[in-house]
Recover the amino acids of this structure.
């Protein structure tokens, strides 16, 4: 993860660990009040990733430290102050993106992860209750080229699952890579701070990509 733009300081801050015997990166999940609510493991062995997926609840003996991912926003416990101060929030898919932006921006980080590619009703209500002026949608790049059916389907997904549930309550903008700054399935945070800032400078307002 160091080579992927996550500092040791950020990993210590978020209490990231490594389990040698399961060969997994260990990611504690805490709620906005800093209470531990679950633990996820990130497989690093390609065979395990193929068979079981990248992420799974961490297991200790017969106990799984699972929790409903849709009832939390990863990183909110650390980034709530910056979100309220800046009155904006950036939504990403995975924990890694929150850690990358923590490395980039530190105490000015206003990013949270939904831990998936959909916005739950609980997450929607929580974001609205934060009383921000802007929600920035920064999902992984699930298309290889623009102006293709794959691209159009991804735009429809973003509109249906993120923009439509939020746009009546807050200004919504979207980070979309139309200039090949990212690789296929990259997060907007994966290519470093300079690339992320370029995407932020060209973020798209909902009114320009609506129905």
């Amino acid at each position: 993860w160091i080579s992927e733009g996550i500092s040791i300081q950020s990993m210590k801050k978020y209490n990231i660990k490594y389990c040698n015997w399961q060969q997994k990166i260990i990611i504690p999940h805490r709620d906005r009040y800093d209470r531990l609510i679950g633990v996820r493991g990130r497989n690093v062995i390609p065979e395990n990733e193929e068979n079981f997926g990248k992420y799974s609840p961490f297991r200790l003996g017969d106990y799984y430290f699972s929790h409903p991912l849709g009832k939390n926003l990863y990183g909110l416990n650390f980034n709530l102050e910056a979100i309220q101060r800046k009155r904006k929030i950036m939504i990403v898919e995975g924990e890694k993106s929150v850690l990358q932006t923590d490395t980039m921006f530190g105490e000015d980080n206003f990013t949270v992860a939904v831990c998936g590619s959909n916005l739950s009703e609980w997450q929607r209500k929580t974001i609205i209750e934060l009383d921000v002026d802007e929600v920035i949608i920064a999902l992984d790049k699930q298309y290889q080229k623009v102006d293709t059916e794959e691209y159009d389907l991804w735009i429809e997904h973003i509109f249906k699952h993120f923009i439509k549930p939020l746009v009546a309550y807050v200004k919504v903008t979207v980070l979309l890579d139309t200039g090949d700054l990212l690789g296929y399935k990259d997060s907007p945070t994966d290519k470093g701070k300079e690339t992320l800032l370029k995407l932020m400078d060209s973020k798209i307002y909902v009114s320009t990509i609506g129905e």
The chain has a mean pLDDT of 92. The two ends are 38 Å apart (CA to CA).
